[in-house]
Design goal:
Helices cover about 15% and strands about 35% of the residues. It is globular and about 35 Å long. The two termini are about 15 Å apart. The protein contains two helices and five strands, in the order ββββααβ. The chain has one domain (about 1-115): Archaeosine Trna-guanine Transglycosylase, Chain: A, domain 4. It has a five-stranded mixed β-sheet with strand order 1-3-4-5-2, with no helix packed on it.
C-alpha cells in the first residue's frame, strides 16, 4: 500500500472526503480504487499515521501551461478547497516546494475518502 504524505495538517484532512494534488508517478500512477496510507510528515522521525483512504477520483489538471487544451487548469475554487487562499497562493507553494519547472507539468487532482 502506497503512502500519501502531508507536510501540513490541513483542515481538509478532517473531512470525510478531501482532495489533494499530486504529480503523475512514472512507475505506477495513482488510480481509482487504490487504498493509500495517509501520513503527516512521513519523512520525519516524528511522522504520524493519520489513517487509510481510498482514491475515488483522479482528474488531470494543468497548472500554468496553456497546452493541452483538453485538460482544465486548476481553478481558484479547487485551490481554495485544497486549503490555499487562491490559485496564486497554490502556485507559490508549488513553486517553493517543487521548483519552477514542475509548474509547467500536468498534475493529478485526487479525491480521497477515509476508510
Amino acid at each position: 500500500m502506497r503512502i500519501i504524505s502531508f507536510t501540513k495538517m490541513w483542515d481538509k484532512l478532517k473531512q470525510p472526503e478531501f482532495t489533494t494534488f499530486r504529480y503523475p508517478r512514472g512507475d505506477k500512477d495513482w488510480f481509482v480504487g487504490e487504498e493509500v496510507q495517509v501520513f503527516y510528515k512521513n519523512r520525519s522521525p516524528n511522522r504520524e499515521k493519520i489513517g487509510i483512504a481510498e482514491i475515488v477520483k483522479v482528474e488531470p489538471r494543468r497548472i500554468l501551461s496553456v497546452v493541452p487544451y483538453d485538460i482544465p487548469r486548476i481553478s481558484d475554487d479547487e485551490a481554495i478547497s485544497d486549503g490555499f487562499e487562491n490559485f496564486n497562493d497554490m502556485v507559490d507553494w508549488l513553486h517553493k516546494t517543487y521548483s519552477k519547472w514542475v509548474l509547467r507539468s500536468n498534475i493529478n487532482k485526487l479525491t480521497l475518502r477515509w476508510l
